[in-house]
Design goal:
Blueprint lengths: L7 H13 L6 E2 L1 H6 L5 E4 L3 H6 L6 E2 L17 E4 L4 H12 L4 E4 L2 H7 L4 E2 L5 E2 L1 E2 L14 E2 L3
Parallel strand pairs: 1-5, 2-3, 2-4, 4-5, 8-9
Antiparallel strand pairs: 6-7
């Protein structure tokens, strides 16, 4: 498990992830992704309303509720899937692995990405501080950025 040590909330975040995710898709850390960003196909498995507020630069929206498992992606590039914390992306990742793709789940999802001071962009490809917190219950895990609901 990848974790950020030293801050109580982050340790609690790690515990929540450990208890929520089944760990059926290998994790990729933020550091690993950032160091090799262009070598991955990055898929956003959140819903369109979340993606439109902000997303990782150059990510492809695939959604969760209406995910098309027949959509093809290049098999010569590993895939990184992400959502808010990693649950939805784990489920999509499982489907992609069954189709023969090499897939990694971004540890802690877009919440961990934002909480560790990384940038996201809006649909105009401009850096934004806005982030969709999924819902009120899960919003407590988003500690930076501007929580923006649809």
């Amino acid at each position: 498990m990848y974790s950020v040590i030293g801050v109580a909330q982050e340790t609690t975040f790690d515990t929540m992830l450990y208890n929520t995710l089944e760990k059926t898709v290998p994790f990729i850390s933020i550091h690993q992704l950032k160091n090799n960003y262009s070598t991955y196909t990055i898929l956003d498995t959140r819903e369109m309303k979340e993606y439109e507020i902000s997303h990782l630069k150059n990510s492809i929206h695939v959604g969760f509720d209406n995910f098309n498992s027949n959509k093809a992606f290049p098999k010569n590039k590993p895939i990184v899937v992400y959502c808010s914390i990693g649950y939805r992306s784990e489920k999509i990742g499982e489907l992609l692995i069954q189709k023969g793709y090499t897939v990694f789940n971004l540890y802690g999802g877009i919440f961990n990405w934002i909480n560790t001071n990384n940038t996201v962009v809006n649909t105009s490809n401009l850096i934004t501080k806005n982030i969709h917190p999924y819902n009120k219950k899960w919003s407590k895990w988003l500690t930076t950025g501007i929580k923006t609901y649809d």
